[in-house]
Structure formats: structure tokens, C-alpha cells
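1st attempt posting a full record on here, be nice pls
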Amino acid sequence: MKKNRTRLLTVIAAVAAVTIASGFTPAGQASDLGDGPRYEGMEYLQGGATNAIDGPQPAVDQLADEIVKTTDGVVQRIADRRSALPFGQIYPDGNAPAQLSTYPAPAEIAASDQYSVQVHHGTVKDSFVYETQSRKPDTNLEKDTSWTSFSFSGAVTVAVTKLAGDATGCMVRPSSARIATVFTDHTCFFTLTKPLNLSVEFTPNTTNPVLHPMLVFANPPEVDVPQPGDPDVLYLGPGIHRLGRDVPVHSNETIYLAGGAWVEAAFKGTGVHDVVFKGRGIVSGLFLDTGDQEANKGQPGLIDLASSENVVVDGITFVDGPRFNVRVLGSDVTLHNLKVMSWWYSTDCVWAGSFSLTEGNFCKVNDDSLKPMLGPAVIRDNVVWQLENGAPFMISWNIKEDQSDFHIYNNDVIHAEHYWLSPQAIFRARHATPGHMQRYLFENIRVEDANWRLFYIILENTKWYDPALGFGQISDLIFRDITADTPFTRPSVVAGIDPEHQVRDVTFLNVHMNGVCAAKAEDGNFQIDPATTDHIRIMKSMGGNCQTPGASSSSGG
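the predicted structure (as C-alpha cells):
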């Protein structure tokens, strides 16, 4: 270990000079001739007719502006309600002094045999590396996943050492973070100046399947931390806590998991309000795992709150859930900086109710990751590593009531391991209920290392739904500034279920696929059903180029 510390110190000077860019610069704004931005492309109408797009599309721009305005108001409403909660603050003080906190694991927890991590912040500290083994061997492509977690402000240099296997270099995802690395003696060095959830990958194994993933969760400093002994706080300090399943959650309660806490629990509540989960601890669902896909369907989620109101879940890591992970349904919900890793089908990552903010989370699961299904809602600044099942963005799965107003932006999909289940896609809707899903704005979405399918937006009659209940529709979707510069082997599909139950008024704007900025169906291998769709637009900003990845026109909130 002394050798590692010495090597780290010798590399600091080379790494510390690296400036980390926080985004990209637009290649250029669309022309404004007094009548709005101008576009070119093709519109596909019901029955098979087409219209050429050559000029402004004010209805599209107006819809996007309306969605942003509505959802920015949602973010402010949630912030106002969150501010009234004891221990509801989640954002650090930007003027706080530079600091670093690492979290030793309980003695009973074995360290990863694949990686070790050290963090330099004036002095060198070890950051414990956990490891979870793959659980679904018939389909999981990976062997395990290792991760470490620390909190900091200022600047830190991280050293990730590969303990097993060969390595010739390294990289850090998401690529949008533009993190420069230095590789020497099986160690990857890089400097961080802001909190990020990252994947550190060693060549030659940086594309699917990455057999031994290594994740770095660089958190912001904790704020608004409760103290032990508070009667309204369930305080779980460092060490192992075996609470079991169906742990009751009460209104006006804070559940705090300190860094170094390993909690075996599944929390459950109905009709609760003013609840905060927070901390840097870990919730493990391995104690619930039966080892069988079908048997696991009877197991609970790790947090399951129904009909809830004014709930915050912040900072916690969730591993090895055998069913869904964090589901908080109701209203005024914040899911912030959660880290989730699960292996089985039906292990959805996070799902928040109406008037919700899902922000800054990391999902590495084997079912749907981010679920814009209950609106209005904002989903932003998340990172997804999708396993073989599910979708990074799931627009509908049997939602029965009408839903509207979703802003999903500035998210990264760093891997999607889809390889054999046909309907899988990055953006997916499998809508089979009477609800009308409408008014979605997806923008600034960056997709890396994915080659199966980009869009699958359909209405269908599935085995999970009684068609006698009737069907709904999907409308008013905008996908703007989407970058997926990888070849996809399956076409993107847009289809309703019959001429009366359509997918309609969908705009694909500045979608950059495999080096092409799409302006017609052939550019992106789109299959658009003429009988069950209407007003499907594929277009790009006038001038021939998509915006450079990362450019956004939204206010962001």
C-alpha cells in the first residue's frame, strides 16, 4: 500500500493540471429571420402521405417552451416543499471549504478482488471498494460490479488500480464529462472538481460486455445531517443493520444511513407524508434474493411508498435488490444522487410520482431505469448503465390514467447491453391501456456503447393487459438533440395499435445517429406505421448539422 501511495503522489502533478470541461459548446444557433428557428426534414402523415419540412415549425417550438415552463414550475414547487422538511436540504453550500470524506466498510464485508482506490486531497486516503456478484447467470453478460463512494468539495485526484487481469490503458464514462486520464502501472489517475457518478474502464475491455465494471461515486459533501438520539430520526450508523423486510415508514420521519452503514432492509409505507431518507450508507437486498427469477416476483422493493407526499430520498446506494428498488408514488417527490445496482429482471431503478424531480442518480439495473410515466415530472442529470432487459427511458408500461408534461434532459446512457430481447430500446413505450400519454420533451441525451435499437414507441396488446378495457394513445413528444453515434442493428419503430389509437405528433429534432443527423426516416432506419401514426416529423436545424452534443436550449430549472 505504501508503494501505491508513493506512486499516486508522483502522478499528482501531471494530473492536477487537467481542466475538466462541464459540457459542450453549441456548434451554432439556428438562423433567426424573425419567424423563429428554421428546420428541414420530412413529416409522415396517416395513410402514407408525406410533407417536406423547410422552414419554421412554431407549433413544435411552442410545445417545447410550454413543457419547460410547466416543469420549471414543478421543480420550484418541489423545492419549496422540500425546504420545509427537517433535514430536507440536499444541495451543498458552494462556499464550504474544500473537504474529503471516505467511508470504511464494516469488517464483515469483503473488499473487491478486482480493484483498489485511493483519493488524494492533500493527503492520500484509501476508499473502500465493494463488489457485487452477478445474479442471473443465464443472461447476465458481466461477472460482477465493483464500486467505491466518497464525498468531497474542491479538487481530488483519484487512483483506480486494476488488481486482476490485463490492462493497457483507461477511460472514464460518461464521455460528456470530458475527464482526462493518466494510465501507469495498472492504475488510472484522474482529477475531479465536482461530484460525478462515473465508470472507470480499462482497455482492452471498454465495450459490451465489460466483464468487471468499476464505478466511482464521487458525492457532494453531506448537508443537513441529523444527530443520533433525535426522536423523529431512525439513525443507522456505521456497521451492519439487519432490519428485515416491510420496515414501516412513518409520516414526519427521517431515516438516515451514515457512510459505512450496511443496511439489510426493505422499507414500506402507504399514505405517508414529510419523509426523508438520506445519507451515504448502503441498502442491500441480497437477504431477500431467492436465487430464482419467478420466486423473486413475490419479494418487496427496497423502498416502496404509495400515496405519499413530500418525500426526499437522497445520497443512498442500493444493491442486489431482487425486485424493484426505489418506488415513491404520490406527489412532490425528490429522488437525488441515488446509486442503484441490481441483476434480475424486474429490478427497476427509480420511479417517482407526479410533481417529481429525479436528479443526479446512477442506474445499473436489469429492468427500466428512468420512468417518465406520472406527470408532471423532471428527470435530469442521471447516468444509466442498462443491462440486457428494460429501457433507460420507459415512457409507458400500462399506465391507465392520462399523464402529461415531462422534461427529461441532460442524461447519459453509458452502456446498453441489449442483445437478444427484440423490443428493447433506449427510448421505449409499450403502451397497452386507455391512458393518454402526452407532452414529453427529451433533450440533451447522450448514448454511448449501444447497438440494438434507439426508439421503440408503440401501442400494443400485451399479455399483461385486458384489451376489453380499451386502448389510449401517445402524442406530443419531442426528442431534441439526441446523440447516439453507434450503429444500431434494429430499426427504430413508431406505431399505434389501430387507426383510432395512434402515436401522433412526434418530433425527432437533431437526432444524431451513427454519424448522420436524421432528416428523414431512411437516415435513422425508422419504421413508421402509416396506418396507426400521424404527424411524425424527422428534422434538423437548417444548415445541415445537428447541434454539438450537450448543447441545450432549456432553462433547466
